Amino acid sequence: MKDCWRVFVQLEEKRQENREISALEKKKEVALDLESFGETLYAQMEKGQFPWIRMPSRSIENIYYSPELRQYILGERRVKRSARNVRHIRPLSQLVWTAFFAHELSTKRKTSTLRDVYYSAQAYQMSFKDQSESDNIITDLETVIGLAREDFNIFPEERSAVFGDLTIEYTVPGYEGRQMNLTSHPDGLMVGPALTYSEFVKTSADKVFAIEKGGLFTRFIEESVHRRFNALLVLTAGQAPRATRHFIHRLNKELELPVYILTDGDPWGMHIAMVIISGSANAAHLRGLTTPDAKWSGVWATDIVDYKLPSDPLTEVDVKRLHELQRDPRYKDKLWQREIKTFMRIRKKAEQEAFSRYGLTYIVDEYLPAKLEETE
Amino acid sequence: MVSQVFEEISPADFFYRNRDIAGFTNPSRAIFASIRELVENSLDAAELAEVPPDICVRLRYGEGGPDSGVYKLRVEDNGSGITSRHIPSAFGQVLFGSKYKLKQSRGTFGLGGTMAVLYGQITTHKPAHIISSTGSTKVYIYEIMIDIQRNKPIILERKILINKEQWHGTIVEFFLEGDYFRAMPKILEYLKQTALVNPYANITFVDPKGRLYKFSRVTTKMPPPPKETLPHPYGVDVETVKRLARMTSHRNMLDFMSAHFHRVSENIAHKFLEFAGIPKTKNPKKLDSQEIVKLVKTIRRFEGFRSPSASCLSPLGEELLKAGILKELKPDFVAVYQRKPSTYAGHPFIVETAMAYGGDIPKKDDFVLYRFANRIPLLYDEASDVSFRVMKSMNWRRYKVSQDMPIAVLVHICSTKIPYKTVGKEFIADRPEVKREILNGVREAARRLQRFLSKRENVEKERRRLNVFSKYLPKIAKFATELAGRERQPEVERLLESVRTVGRKETRK
């Protein structure tokens, strides 16, 4: 037990190798990882040591952009957390409890929301100051074990949805083996735990549209975009939740579908697209959340000019954000830099709904085919 | 043309007309001032007899009942008593007293007792009763009034009783107009603070409603009584020198200087006379007015006099001051500090300071300030007092204390002449020498308080630290055991014990 982190790294590597293992096997794998974490601490105490762990540092100085992986990763820095240290013992005990709780969830095949975890702690006389403290400890557990919280059956509140011709097979208790086509509900299906753990069976689609806003998502379904463009539609509902990013990642990796992202034409919309493509610094300890080959298809700053879209002036905050993005390593590609510069030059932004000035179907009939051609 | 009428007025008449300067401004102040003056006389008398004071104050409604505004005040002590022939004058003649020598005492004018009786007489026109014995075979009872215009006592009746128990002490009983219920808070505060600064005294007070307030002594140890001293050269004025020259039995200036002034040896007298250019052999009785004025001026310029000795002072001492504070305020901590004797304008003085924390001390927006001068509490005009200014000028953050903490600051000045700013004897003037001593004294007490508070904080921190370990370590053990699927929990008691040992070592450091 020289360096428990190394064990986790090995586990992580092993997991990466066996990407195609079944959901059920993966559950077992997760439980084993958590158990070995408990065993490590147990052995330390049996030897009369204060329990301690070593884990990758998540501090900002240890987050690097990896051009190979095309996402943020954690550097070499490790931090030690020991129960001998009065400032560490509380977060360490919270971490052990969270591991214990995650283990309970996976063995009993239950899921929990982040908020639920915060409240459940109280039943075990574990106290979190607020939900952000418990969220942070869950992120620590992800870092220590090397798995995403969704693997521990912990989910954020859901708000994103998917629609289109994709048949999935459930693996969650009570639904095992049951199949479902994602066109069966005209409002789309929520990307929740059940969908996250499902297996993909078959699809006729040959592309994915990720859409920022509910209004456009509904318009696309009404206009049968899924049929006309042979596409799966994913609503990100603003910044895409991690489960949704993982889902898009799977559609791209497992079904080899190209992904096109449609957002508002402003720095915030750009960044929604970028996080789906290259991930966030907050998730630097995780893999499988990014889709590096996905394309941002609009609304671009140049679209505002080319399509003479109704627009609003950029605010000071917008401009400040643009300057930040300009320096961000994820934005170093030509397209991104061109769009940032255009935004700064025209000092305007436009929402997806702006196309309605040319009629309700213009965006589907004219804009979308043109953009697809442009971003091919 | 109207001719002006000149008339001579007696001291009693003067104070009758100007009674507010002695603190008898209104019915509520008058009743407070009467009790205060008599209690202070009693304390002085007991200290003179070198017995721990037993003082009993009884205030009753007068014959007209609660609504008449007339009260009967009776103050009894176990002090030295007054010799029979001095009793009428002691309470019936203004400016007659035993306090005209140079030593520390509570009163300064010999005014207090008589003023109280005088005030009683002018508001109720009733005689006062004085009962006193010096412990001899007789007890004397006088019924007196004051002839205000002539400043003379009128003896209405005189009785002599046999003193079987060898009682000594004085009882004063008289009627006066007042407003007890408005004065009550101040009276009770006065008695409490008096008890604080006289921890060897028993003081009982029964108010008109029959409520008993008892302040018991915690020690019988009393501070050594002050010695009488000669005037210090720096403190004398032309009139004093003139009087000394008139009464001296010495025939030459050398003997005159060394016999009548404080800390002037023959050697120093010699040097001084040389400095002043006065022949050693000159007869002091032959000094004329101009020579005396010149002498006093030269004294001020001469730097060879030694500073006055503090033997004429009787500070309370750190031990007694601490006992008094512990008794009346019951604080969690008290630091007391006595400064070395110092002087201002030829008057020796000693400053004693204390800071107390917690206990009965209230939490307010500011510290509680207790001011004492020659062991009497000062209750009025706090904001004008030098101690208040010192307290306000301190940078308390340096001592890690803040105004909202339950802290009391106490300043006691004793001197042969307290630098009061007014005749009302309520607050002390901003003399730089006095201010410096108070500042240094309060600083030292504050430093000690700071040490106490930071030590307590460390202990508290250590306790919290240990709590964290004993709260969380068992949880880690529990959940790690369940996670690992083990039956038995690992032993963490030894780990906890090791934290405790380290903790003990750290606090000892």
Give an overview in words:
The complex is a heterodimer of chains A (376) and B (509). Chain A has 376 residues and is of the alpha/beta class. Chain A has two domains: 4-155, Arc Repressor Mutant, subunit A; 161-375, Dna Topoisomerase Vi A Subunit, Chain: A, domain 2 (3-Layer(aba) Sandwich), CATH 3.40.1360.10. In chain A, 45% of the residues lie in helices and 16% in strands. A six-stranded mixed sheet of chain A has the order 10-7-13-12-14-15, with helices on both faces. Chain A has a three-stranded antiparallel sheet with strand order 9-8-11, with no helix packed on it. Chain A has a two-stranded antiparallel sheet with strand order 1-4. In chain A, a hairpin with a 4-residue loop joins strand 2 and strand 3. The longest helix of chain A is centred in the first third of the chain and has 24 residues, at 23-46. Chain A is globular and about 75 Å long. The model of chain A is unreliable at 1-12 (pLDDT under 50). Chain B is of the alpha+beta class and 509 residues long. Chain B folds into four domains: 11-215, Heat Shock Protein 90; 233-301, Helicase, Ruva Protein, domain 3 (Orthogonal Bundle), CATH 1.10.8.50; 310-452, Ribosomal Protein S5, domain 2 (2-Layer Sandwich), CATH 3.30.230; 455-508, no CATH class. Helix content of chain B is 39%, strand content 20%. Chain B has 13 helices and 14 strands. In chain B, the strands form two sheets. Chain B has an eight-stranded mixed sheet. In chain B, strands 9, 10, 11, 12, 13 and 14 form a six-stranded mixed sheet that branches. In chain B, a hairpin with a 2-residue loop joins strand 10 (342-344) and strand 11. The longest helix of chain B is centred in the C-terminal third of the chain and has 53 residues, at 432-484. The model of chain B has no long low-confidence stretch (mean pLDDT 88). At the A-B interface, helix 2 and helix 3 of A face helix 12 and helix 13 of B.
